[in-house]
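Suppose a colleague, Dr. K., hands you the sequence of a protein chain of 59 amino acids and asks what its three-dimensional shape might be. Before reaching for any lab equipment, you can write down a predicted structure in C-alpha cell form. Begin with the sequence itself:
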Amino acid sequence: AIPVIGDFMVELLRGGESVGQSTLTRFYSLHTFVLPWSLAVFMLMHFLMIRKQGISGPL
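The predicted structure, expressed as C-alpha cells, is then:
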C-alpha cells in the first residue's frame, strides 16, 4: 500500500468499503469515457508534433 494516501485511494477507487455496484460503475465509465478520450488527446498531440517537427530520417 502507498503510505499516507493508500487508504484514501483504495476507497476512492472502490467507491466504498467493499467492491460493489459503485465500483463497477466507476470502472465502466473509466473504460468507456476516460481512456478513449485520453487516447484521442495523445494521438492528436502526436500528430501535431509530427506536423510541426516533420518526420525524422532513419537512424
